[in-house]
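RESIDUES AND SHAPES:
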Amino acid sequence: WRDMTWQTKADNEVLKRRLWDLEKALEQAWEDKRDIREEMTRQYQELQKQTAAHSQRLEAKVKSLQEQLATRLQESQQIQETATQALAERDRTIAQLQGRLNAMEREYEKILHGSLDLVLAKMAEASQCWKEVGTPIAMEHKERLQEFGLNPLEI
């Protein structure tokens, strides 16, 4: 019985030690699990913070870009309106100048026709005057040529 008791006590001690080792291993596993969970929770929270900060930066950037786009669109619209107004003003100016040019052309045409009519009248008057003055002279020269025996039509 002693050997058996001693053997049982030794086995009991081995089993207690083994149980104690297993309990320590279990506690260590629980601590490791808790540490891992805490680390993962910390990393998750840090990732959430980073994601939230990045999201806010992106939202701010989007808002800024939308404002810039709206500003550029407004500037573009103003430039287009200014260009349209400038083109309309240019077209009005061209139309006014064309109207003036046409009026000047008609006025110069009237002046030219009036001047030509005056020149024609003076030429007709001069022609009549030359006929009046020239006919007696031509007759006189014709008579003189005939006096000398020359035919004025042959000369």
Notes: The chain has one helix and no strands. The longest helix spans residues 2-147. The two ends are 190 Å apart (CA to CA).
